[in-house]
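Protocol step 6 of 9: fold each sequence in the batch and record its structure tokens directly after the sequence line. For illustration, a two-sequence batch is reproduced in full.

Sequence one:
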Amino acid sequence: MLAGPGPARAEYPDRPIEVIVPVPPGGGLDLQARLLADVVEPFLKQKLVILNRPGGGGAVGMSVLLAAKPDGYTVAAVWNGPLTTNPHTQPVGYGIDDYVPIIQFSAAPFVLCAAPAFPANSGAELIEHLRKNPGTYTYGNEGAGGTLQLAAERIFRTLGVRVRPIAFRGASETVNNFLGGHITFYGGGVASILPHVKAGKAKCLLLTSAGKNEVLPQAASLTELAIPQAETVLWRAIIAPKGVPPERRAVLEAAFRQGAQSQRFLAFLKTLGETPMAAGPDAVGKLIRTELEELGKVARELGMKRP
């Protein structure tokens, strides 16, 4: 007697997908992840559930992601810190082969800003002034050994200038200390300082990117300073645990790509001064490996690289 047809396999996805966000609610990555999840849902025809798992500079969220079953029902929205910086400066317990990139969805330079009265009004004037006053000035950053500090030091060392880093706990604390006059320069993302630039309380002089930024046209790019090779920017991506079946990764990539290119998401990024991206797994994987190597060199030079 012939067996009858087996039960039909459910089409992926057939239930909600969890999106791990390794930062508290309300920050830049969290806001982008929530909107991206919202615009991606129609393409996946399933709910995307945001789970904030902050702590350890992204390590807590990464551990939750990598402990999940690799079935395509758990992904993470991350920034490059946990992927290319923390492995050099923290005992993270994971490596580049423990996860797979799905898509990069945004990028933005870090920026160095001064008070309006600071005696430099361009990137070239800033560098000239710093060379004449080595170690005199300070810049705030969002945590010792973080991506911003490595990005800044990569530029400073290339240009032969010295600025003292002061670590704070997050962007808001950095901004408050800058506005209060406790540090010379704000160092951080564009979105956190932009309202104060518009209010005339800060002027941004230097980007960590090779290209210009639309909302901060006065800030010098690294190309204008003849060192485009020293670029390190803040970028964000969707990743999944290793072992997710290729056909499910392809479904996720297609859906997140459509969401990242939606008019609603693009308009939101523009308000933040961020650049929309839609780089796929191969391009993101190459970016991670290159940046991991370059930032490892900087961490080693600074004495921050763990054994």
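Sequence two, same batch, same settings:
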Amino acid sequence: MTGAKPAPPPGPRRHTAALHLDGVRDKAGFLDRCARDLGFPAWFGRNWDALADCLGDLSWWGRPAEGFVLRVHGWEAFRTAAPEAAATAAEVFAEATARWAERGTPLTVRYE
């Protein structure tokens, strides 16, 4: 016996994506950044319904056993610059989180 400790069990397998909102000041910029940073499919229509549709599918991210994490960088600056768009975006994120929870696969949105 060498005294070596067994390797810890693997951690949760979650797909993590980052949305960078630096310089985004309106709805159009937010939706463009979602398309770019989150790798949305070509059919993404750059409107709130299309955002909800894309967040409700996520098949292009794969289906990890433990769910998804979306890290939203620059949220406070965006919320200050475009409060109505930020409120709607947060609502869409919350609805997507609830839908994924119903399926037993968590989607966690972290506002940073």
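Proceed to step 7 once all outputs are recorded. Observation for sequence two: The chain has one domain: 15-111.
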